[in-house]
Amino acid sequence: MSQQSKKYLQFGAAITAIVVALGYLAFTGVQESKSYYKTIKELSQMGDQAYLLRLRVAGNVQPGSIHRQGTRVEFNLMEEGRLLPVVYQGTEAPPDTFKDNSQALAEGTYGRDGVFHAKKLQAKCASKYAPQQKQQSPPSGTTEKAEVRTETDSK
Asked: Model-level pTM?
């Protein structure tokens, strides 16, 4: 084998190793970031598969169930009469909208202890997204006068 073909072979082997390593990193990165959305009912029906996957579960926070201990928060999610105990141990504090009866989305893993171990937590306040109430109009046949004041009136 000539010196030049030996260099080409070494170069090809190095390129192949780099491509295989990048492919492996991309595959494992996608697998780690993948999560499946499940309802509390679906979670209870998954069997052993529930313990292996990264999951997202949504529900309403049960009133009076929030217990904070530093960055650790324990609470219950409710959905269709079912309860799911959740322990959130994340790097960030729970959002300000995380309160009793708020809608919450927990992302993490389901443990064999029956507790959902969340690494991420999202919440929204239901009243913030409710439609605005219509203002009542005065009874028919009456008119309401609005008082308009200007700067000269206040002097």
From this structure: 0.60
